[in-house]
Amino acid sequence: MTRKKDGKLANFLKGIVVENPLFVSVLGTCPALATTTSIEGAIGMGILFSIVLICSNILISLLRKLISEEITTPAYIVVIATFVTIVKMMTNAFLPELYNTLGVFISLIVVNCIVLGRAEAYASKHGVLDSLLDACGMGIGYTLALLSIAFVREILGAGMISFGNIFTFIPRFDIPILKYVENDVVIYDYSINMFIQPTGAFIVFGTILAIIAAISNYKNNKAKVKEKLAKAKLKEAQ
Amino acid sequence: MKIDKKLLKHYSFVALVLGGIASISALLIALTYMITNSVIEENNLKKTLESLKNIYGEDKIYEKVEDIDNQSYSYLNSYYASYNSLENNQKGDLIGYVFSCDGKNDYGTIEMIVGINVDSDISKIYLIVNNQSFGQTVQNNYVDSFNNGEIEIGDVSCGATYSATLIRDMSLQAQQYFNDFLGK
Asked: Does B136 contact chain A (CB < 8 Å)?
């Protein structure tokens, strides 16, 4: 029972860190670069992406025995496109600012490799609960990845973190960090506008990938050294 | 010709499944459309009403007159009358009409409003949606310059000539509508 529970937890957690779709699998990079100019935009994109991923994973898992091999791709595309259209209409109606900010990138979730990839590789082969956990983990992982890029870009590019511009239901407020404005007068401004531009997106994304690769290499090397030491000790003992 | 019944059954099932998925998808989308359409239209109207202030100013009264459904004026969607505001929010003299238009070319779409004064002059242009490839160029070099009185409506050579031509055509169509139906 505990092992089963651990399996479910591992299934959920793998998408967040070990198999993070953006930083480890390097999938869905186009919206990651385009929609991360602000933290609010990144959260919005992450939530919409997660909703589509969860709904499509559940439905595909439910229909997995009915969908035969010949029609997997068209069937999955229809399912994903349906949820994307629904999410798009809902966003346009109830969060028009988010809809205007994300623009074409909401529609482009249809062709996001992560959604189709999880449908093909996971939901079509596993039960509903497992597929739901997988989608939740991947959705959270992708959202956190977007958030980390947006956090760096907004601080360096805009000099402050702003809330309430896209999610208008929360009161508007700014957290000044590199830029401080009082009564429309700029007191100090050390922001670098380039980080809001596409160039900044590539630099931040590349830097994060490099850091992750460095940590991963360090861990691998450490494990190898430990293994060698253990072997040497064993030889000595013999 | 011998028909493989097993194969036929299989493909019928496959077609049925795909047809079923497509039908349910269509139903879901239709249901969502029914729920969201009125809200989206309300949002768009609110956005248009908010943008009207950019033509004759915030202190004026704007009233929707009617939607335009005329093939000869394909760019025009609806128009609003603008009045001076008197005490107690009473309507004063008619200043002009604001036309809501949208158009498309190979470089994207434009949604805009254009004010036509009572003397039939084009007063101001305001772009609500500007998805043109050279959107900022047409805004700076054509729309802003026209609004500041630096160029005439026909001076479309601005570095985004196709976009400017679309805006010019929409504005002239609004002026034509005014002359045909509203002018004295």
From this structure: no
